[in-house]
Amino acid sequence: MADRTRTSLARLGLTEPRAEDTLRELGWWSGDSPAPGADVVMWALARAPDPDLALRQVERLRATGEWKAIDAELRTDVGLRGRLFALLGASTALGDHLVVHPDRWPLLADGPTRQDPPPDLARRTENLLRAVGADPAAERPRAQMTGTAAVTALRTAYRDELLGLASADLAAVGEQSLPVMEVDEVAAQLADLASAAIRAALAVAVEEVDPPEEVKLAVIGMGKCGGRELNYVSDVDVIFVHSGDTQVATKIASKVMRIAGEACFEVDANLRPEGRQGALVRTLEGHVSYYRRWAKTWEFQALLKARPIAGDAALGQAYAEAVAPMVWSAAGRDDFVHDVQAMRRRVEEHVRPDHAERELKLGRGGLRDVEFAVQLLQLVHGRTDETLRSPSTLDALAALSAGGYVGRDDGANLAASYRFLRLLEHRLQLQKMRRTHLLPAKDDLDGLRWLARASRLRADGKHDVVGVLMNEWQRNARRVRRLHEKLFYRPLLESVSRLAADDTRLPEKAAAARFKALGWASPEGALGHLRALTGGVSRAASIQQTLLPVLLEELAATPDPDRGLLAYRQVSEALATTPWYLRLLRDEGQVAERLMYLLGTSALVPDLLVRAPEILRVLATPVAGQPDELTRDPAAVGQGLIAAVARQHDLTAAVASARSLRRHEMLRVACADLLGSLSVAEVCEALSTIWVAVLRATLAATIKDVAAGGEVRARIAVIGMGRLGGAELGYSSDADVMFVCEPAGDGFTDGEAVKFATSVVEGVRRRLGAPSPDPALEVDADLRPEGRSGPLVRTLHSYREYYARWSEVWESQALLRARPVAGDAPLGRAFMELIEPIRYPADGLTTAQVTEIRRIKARVDDERLPRGADRGTHTKLGHGGLADVEWTVQLLQLQHAGDIPELRTTSTLEGLREAAEAGLITADDAYELRAGWEAATRARNAIMLVKGKPGDQLPRSGRELSAVAVASGYPNDGDPGAFLDDYRRTTRRARAVVERVFYGWST
Question: For the Glutamate-ammonia ligase adenylyltransferase repeated domain, which residue ranges apply (predicted)?
Answer without folding.
Answer: 84-319, 593-832
